[in-house]
């Protein structure tokens, strides 16, 4: 895991923890996605349009005054049928005090129906639970986020009680969504402990074999692929969409692939709306 300074605040970057062979062709042309059967609708959304089956989960690890925030809002306003999750990360977590720019920025994200999750890290099940619970409470009290994103999630079944405790506390605070990020396949006992599990976070598109390990339609899973130079072809997206309910594909890479949005982000969201 690495830290990077972004417009006066320090953020923690999710780092993929497993490798997978890339078997998916890419092309610079747009795609229309044939997708799975899940969607999450924010309680703040006033849109009555039918939802796309597959949404976008964006690690929005930039400061609220960065143009990436307004670009994300515009994408949701333009394509309201596409579910969008934004993961915000004030300072490797909630930070030491409330930030008024985040208060305004999060409100602006939620207005068109973007689901906002607050970032916490769990150190693969070794971080003190009380520290994480404190951060969850701060996210609720300071920013009114919709849920929590648990990074550095262990994939071992022996950590089930640990993550169940965190999930129960999140539920007690009234959060409507929780997402864990093991970044790889997990023990079957961990499936369902959170609303969604990110089962791939790595450079390049995932192979089908890295996504099809579970007897599920993909409702509770997602993947994040960075360093993907061009938007994947229609057939490539279709081949992965049956296994997940959220995706994020970006051409950014290096030590911090989340310090902005991909150059093809508008096309990524547009084609999921078709």
Which helices and strands occur, and which strands form pairs?
Elements (H helix, E strand, L loop, with lengths): L1 E5 L2 E5 L41 E6 L6 H12 L5 E5 L11 H11 L4 E7 L7 H15 L3 E5 L8 H13 L4 E4 L15 E8 L17 E6 L7 H8 L4 E4 L15 H8 L2
Parallel strand pairs: 3-4, 3-10, 4-5, 5-6, 6-7, 7-8, 8-9, 9-10
Antiparallel strand pairs: 1-2
What does this structure look like?
With 274 residues, this protein is of the alpha/beta class. It has a single domain, classed as TIM Barrel (Alpha-Beta Barrel). It is 24% helix and 20% strand. Strands 3-4-5-6-7-8-9-10 form an eight-stranded parallel barrel, surrounded by four helices. Strands 1-2 form a two-stranded antiparallel ribbon. Helix 3 runs parallel beside helix 4. The N terminus is likely disordered.
**Mean pLDDT, as a whole number?**
84
* Helix-strand string: EEEHEHEHEHEEEHEH
Give helix % range: 10-25%
Low-pLDDT windows of residues: 1-48
Q: Helix/strand-derived class? A: alpha/beta
Which descriptor suits the 3D outline?
A: globular
Number of strands: 10
Instruction: Give the N-to-C terminal Cα separation.
Output: 36 Å
Number of helices: 6
Largest sheet, if any? 8 strands, parallel, barrel
- The Cα radius of gyration reads 17 Å
Strand order of the largest sheet: 3-4-5-6-7-8-9-10
State the CATH architecture.
Answer: Alpha-Beta Barrel
CATH class descriptor name:
Alpha Beta
Q: The CATH topology is what?
A: TIM Barrel
The percentage of residues in β strands lies in: 15-25%
Domain unit count? 1
């Amino acid at each position: 895991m690495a830290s990077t300074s972004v417009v006066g605040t320090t953020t923690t970057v999710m780092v993929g923890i497993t490798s997978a062979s890339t078997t998916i062709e890419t092309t610079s042309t747009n795609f229309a996605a044939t997708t799975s059967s899940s969607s999450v609708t924010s309680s703040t959304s006033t849109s009555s349009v039918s939802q796309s089956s597959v949404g976008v989960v964006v690690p929005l690890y930039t400061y609220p005054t960065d143009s990436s925030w307004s670009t994300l809002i515009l994408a949701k306003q333009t394509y309201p049928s596409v579910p969008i999750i934004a993961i915000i990360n004030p300072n490797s977590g909630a930070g030491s005090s409330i930030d008024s720019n985040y208060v305004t920025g999060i409100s602006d994200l939620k207005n068109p129906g973007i689901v906002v999750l607050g970032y916490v890290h769990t150190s693969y099940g070794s971080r003190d639970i009380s520290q994480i619970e404190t951060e969850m409470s701060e996210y609720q009290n300071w920013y009114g986020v919709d849920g929590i994103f648990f990074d550095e999630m262990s994939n071992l079944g022996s950590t089930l009680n640990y993550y169940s405790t965190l999930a129960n506390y999140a539920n007690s605070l009234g959060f409507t969504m929780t997402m864990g990020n093991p970044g790889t396949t997990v023990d079957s006992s961990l499936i369902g402990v959170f609303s969604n599990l990110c089962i791939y976070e790595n450079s390049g598109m995932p192979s089908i074999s890295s996504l099809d390990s579970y007897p599920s339609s993909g409702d509770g899973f997602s993947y994040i692929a960075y360093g993907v130079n061009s938007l994947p072809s229609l057939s490539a997206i279709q081949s992965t969409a049956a296994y997940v309910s959220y995706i994020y594909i970006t051409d950014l890479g290096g030590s911090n692939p989340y310090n902005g949005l991909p150059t093809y982000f508008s096309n990524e969201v547009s084609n999921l709306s078709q």
